[in-house]
């Protein structure tokens, strides 16, 4: 694992391919430099390695390439990069600036697809955050999720929204060890908060979840994920109390087969790319996507923290 070429990124080697993810170094209050280790940003390399294991790929890639998967990391893309499930970061000016030529196999949702196609980039209508595939590789968490919850409500804020430690035992800091955070999610009756991957992982394991409006994050990534599962008008809660009262969002349409089929196994095997022409999530018009975005923006806005 090594620092990526763009500030804040890390290239994790997965059998010869660089799995690009975001993990900046920040200074603690005492001045010590540490990686943020936000759990959602660490999921990408885990899923890529899990897919290779599931597909029994044991060879290393003959040509080193970069693969962008989990996260709003498309603004870090370089020419020739492969994209599988990544999304646009609404706080970056990707929509108004040109991305280099990239090889897109799947994206997080239709808002990302619409922006990339506006730049002339070919994007198949295959949607989904690869974190939705975690149950395929983590049977221990599947067992936890099938059992009676050991926690009632778990609150997972975006790491920008984390407040100084208090007395609320329901709060899980997303910078805790990833295994600890995943176990807490799988074992909870309800997950609420501004951590997108708190919601994605909860839904992956069949636990209900609700987004709480973030003070710092852009609405786009939340809308993009929900729209990629066929949900265009999800209500974000104003606070934790409202999230608990609303309960989990109705489950979406998850195109897990399309997402798996779009996995770029050819990077390791040297074969031809095999991307499905379309996924199973119902397609919407650009007008419907724009209307959904406007509804989401009206609830949350564009964020303030970088």
UniProtKB/TrEMBL annotation:
Q: Which UniProt keywords apply?
A: Transferase
By its UniProt entry, which InterPro entries does this protein fall under?
Polysacch_pyruvyl_Trfase
What Gene Ontology terms describe what this protein does at the molecular function level?
transferase activity
Methyltransferase among keywords: no
UniProt domain Polysaccharide pyruvyl transferase: residue ranges = 73-213
Note whether Zinc-finger occurs among the keywords: no
- Region (Disordered), start-end ranges: 273-306
Q: Where is the composition biased (Basic and acidic residues)?
A: 285-296
Could you tell me which Pfam families the record lists for this protein?
A: PS_pyruv_trans (PF04230)
Protein name, per record: Polysaccharide pyruvyl transferase family protein
The organism is Microbacterium hominis
């Amino acid at each position: 694992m090594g620092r990526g070429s763009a500030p804040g990124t890390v290239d994790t080697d997965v059998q010869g391919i660089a799995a690009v993810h975001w993990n900046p170094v920040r200074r603690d209050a005492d001045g010590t430099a540490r990686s943020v280790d936000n759990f959602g940003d660490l999921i990408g390399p885990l899923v890529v390695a899990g897919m290779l294991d599931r597909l029994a790929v044991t060879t290393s890639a003959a040509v080193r390439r970069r693969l962008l998967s989990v996260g709003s990391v498309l603004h870090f893309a370089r020419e020739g990069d492969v994209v599988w499930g990544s999304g646009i970061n609404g706080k970056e000016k990707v929509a108004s600036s040109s991305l280099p030529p990239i090889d897109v196999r799947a994206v997080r949702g239709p808002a990302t697809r619409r922006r990339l196609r506006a730049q002339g980039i070919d994007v198949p209508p295959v949607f989904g955050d690869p974190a939705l595939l975690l149950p395929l590789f983590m049977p221990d968490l599947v067992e936890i999720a099938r059992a009676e919850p050991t926690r009632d409500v778990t609150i997972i804020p975006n790491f920008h929204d984390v407040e100084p430690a208090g007395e609320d035992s329901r709060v899980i800091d997303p910078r805790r060890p990833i295994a600890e955070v995943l176990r807490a999610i799988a074992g909870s009756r309800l997950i609420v908060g501004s951590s997108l991957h708190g919601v994605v992982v909860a839904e992956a394991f069949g636990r209900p979840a609700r987004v709480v409006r973030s003070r710092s994050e852009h609405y786009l990534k939340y809308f993009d994920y929900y729209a990629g599962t066929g949900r265009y008008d999800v209500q974000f809660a104003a606070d934790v109390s409202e999230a608990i009262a609303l309960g989990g969002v109705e489950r979406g349409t998850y195109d897990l087969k399309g997402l798996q089929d779009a996995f770029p196994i050819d990077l390791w095997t040297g074969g031809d790319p095999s991307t499905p022409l379309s996924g199973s999530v119902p397609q919407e018009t650009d007008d419907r996507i724009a209307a959904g975005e406007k509804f989401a923006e009206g609830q949350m806005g564009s964020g303030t923290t970088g």
